[in-house]
Design goal:
The chain is 45% helix and 10% strand. By secondary structure, it is an alpha/beta fold. The C terminus is likely disordered.
């Protein structure tokens, strides 16, 4: 009996390690890897940087990190950096004193004070204004800040979980994001896989969303045609899991009986197997495209009609991507256009 009880406890822990993550659904290898990294870092106080495309479930991961931490009894405070007006970011994060600015009719605590002893989740950290990045770095390094309109420092004990769909390394290269702040945030990065990286999880997700919504929608869906499931698994899903949930909910509204039916064909035609395999290697696609434009522009990245202009990106961004993708000109050097000096023919 003791052996059976021990085995039962072990099996429960194994199930918990992969399944007890609220609404994080799936069994794919890429998702299991992300969950394994989550389980490793959750009990610590280390900062975590969640990386992934829009709609991959970064907030769900943040909540799972907090609930498995030693701070779970304290609040998880969420801040969407992209949704805050630039003039109010500092006040929202650090609070303000009465009369600090027009409209400040009373003292207000900021999000960091509210999260004291708990966790603060900074979503879309890549959109944080540069002038706030310096003050935010101080909070991370020293645990201190001042409210707007105050000269007194306040101390807080907060664990930071940040998330972004931007390439922060690229933002650092362009000077839009502080390098010291990036390295402070990315103590333990976790990549959240896109839905294209976990196609095998789509059937499980479809049924999860059916069960979640059918009571509110007054539906009793018991069948999903294989042809419909195949179409869902071959779709590109630019909006990832969030888009899949919306498609399933619309389909349930359009379905009168017990069989799920799409309300309209998917917006994009299903890619072929060859296209799907090519999309799996995004770096190769980007490299080929950049090299093609470079060749048409004579491998110039500055000046009129240069490659960066054709691609619609900053020259420094192009240099960063070329280095990251290993793009090298046939002669080993890339041409940099120099403007002609007035009075001297070029």
């Amino acid at each position: 009996n003791a052996r059976l009880e021990a085995d039962n406890v072990y099996l429960k822990e194994e199930i918990k390690s992969y399944h007890d993550f609220d609404d994080i659904v799936g069994e794919s290898a890429s998702l299991r890897l992300a969950l394994a990294r989550l389980a490793q870092v959750a009990p610590t106080n280390s900062s975590v940087l969640l990386l992934g495309q829009t709609g991959t479930g970064k907030e769900l991961f943040a909540r799972a990190l907090h609930e498995r931490s030693r701070r779970h009894a304290r609040p998880l405070v969420r801040v969407n950096c992209a949704a805050l007006p630039p003039t109010l970011v500092e006040s929202e994060l650090f609070g303000h004193e009465k009369g600090a600015f027009t409209g400040a009719v009373g003292m207000r605590q900021g999000r960091f004070e509210l999260a004291d002893g708990g966790t603060i989740f900074l979503d879309e950290i890549g959109d944080l204004p540069q002038e706030i990045q310096v003050k935010f770095l101080r909070v991370l390094q020293e645990g201190e800040f001042e409210r707007v309109g105050s000269s007194r420092s306040k101390r807080v004990d907060v664990r930071v979980i940040a998330a972004t769909h931007h390439d922060l390394e690229e933002a650092v290269a362009e000077g839009r994001f502080r390098a010291d702040l990036y390295y402070r945030l990315s103590v333990y990065p976790i990549h959240l896989p896109s839905l294209r990286e976990r196609v095998d999880d789509i059937p499980r997700l479809v049924w999860f969303f059916i069960h979640r919504h059918q009571r509110d929608l007054g539906r009793q869906i018991t069948k999903v045609p294989q042809t419909l499931m195949d179409a869902l698994q071959h779709y590109a899903w630019p909006g990832n899991v969030r888009e899949l949930e919306n498609v399933v909910e619309r389909a349930m509204i359009a379905s009168d009986g017990d069989t799920l039916q799409l309300d309209a064909p998917l917006a994009l035609s299903p890619p072929s197997r060859a296209q799907t395999e090519a999309s799996d290697n995004l770096d190769a696609v980007q490299r080929a495209h950049i090299e093609s434009v470079l060749e048409r522009c004579g491998w110039r990245i500055n000046g009129t009609g240069n490659t960066a202009e054709r691609l619609g990106i900053h020259p420094n961004t192009l240099r960063f991507r070329m280095k990251k993708l290993g793009v090298v000109s046939p002669g080993g050097r890339t041409r940099h256009h120099r403007p002609a000096t007035p009075g001297i023919s070029s």
